[in-house]
Amino acid sequence: MNLALLTFPALYCATILMLTGTGLFLSYIGLRLSGEGVSELWIGALTAAYYAGMVCGAKFGHRMIAGVGHVRSYVACAGVATIIALLHVLFENLEFWLVLRFITGLVMMNQYMVIESWLNEQAENNQRGAVFAGYMVAVSLGLMLGQGVLIWRPDLDFKPLLIVAICFAACLLPVAMTKRLHPAKLTAAPLEIGYFWQRVPQALTTVFVTGLMIGAFYALAPVFATLNGLDTAQASTFVAVSIFAGLCGQWPMGWLSDRIDRSLLIRCSAVALALLVIPLWGVVQLPYTLLLVFGFLSGMLLFTLYPLAIALANDNVEQSRRVPLSAMMLATHGIGACLGPVISGALMNHFGQSTFYMMFSACALLLIWRVQPKHVTGEYLVPDAPLPHVVMPEHPVGVMVAMLDPRVDGVPDELVINPDPEKPVGA
Q: Which residues constitute the domain of residue 125?
């Protein structure tokens, strides 16, 4: 047994605890504020602030890790996240909460980066697929467990915030107590916007539009459910079922992706998504069971668009540029995730909850219009394309996740900070 594998359970455990707290808070804040009569625009803005913090957190994270190391930066950020969760108990000013949510996104991006770079350091090239899959399962499991807390304890008082704080505090223990060697320090991969827009415009469009929908989903899906007559436990079940559907859909969609033109598959998925969410528009009042069914089907399609776009992009970019490509894709997805909750919240605030899934149909139509197989010329297709499809987490993660991708042969030398200038990198 490879001793490096002994590190992975601790890192996976930390990931599950982090995402349990994140998933619980995202649903709790929407349900609580909605119950208090706060507008959907405010609810969306709070989630948008969180994603904005994550986008800005990449640069912050690299500098902090380079300055104090992985363990210290992780422990510090986990401590800040815990304090912020408790500050929500003490202060109920929404403007202040916007600041708190931004800082939460900032520090949590740092935590993602620590875990992902650690996994990358400990994983050999032939392990990357398994390590990546394990990380993806841990992310999804954490998000579902967060919903499980609200199903188990649906009261929307201050106690769920205490559970969030407990999760954020507990996640530092596996990292702080590990005896494994710390990973190498990394710098940020460059964002070559013009280059990648020329190479993979359809993939970038898909990632951005998917970010719009996923950001809106995590912010307002619980609110949508309660406005359709569901209680807290039922609304959390609706969200959990949708997330679970995304997990279930990854492998069959990956199988199809390796056998069907990926641009065509994205377009077909968008067509199916646009049609499947029509029953959720609210024209007809659906019973609880059917809400779950359509939530499951739409979630399966929604959460598989991102990995399809990543696969399409990697088919058209050389090995040496795949880490910068992933950084570009994550940044684009993050910008979409910032805008999605605000747009969806504004629509729901002015036109009612039916516009929540109407926006999903509109986004799907945008993908149908922009992603057209006939426009894929194959000019930039790499020699080994199509590359094997790789399952991706459906929740925004850190920029270091690019190097866990088994399609990337390790960490490029230019991304490593060599602490000893007289010692060559890799020596």
A: 8-410
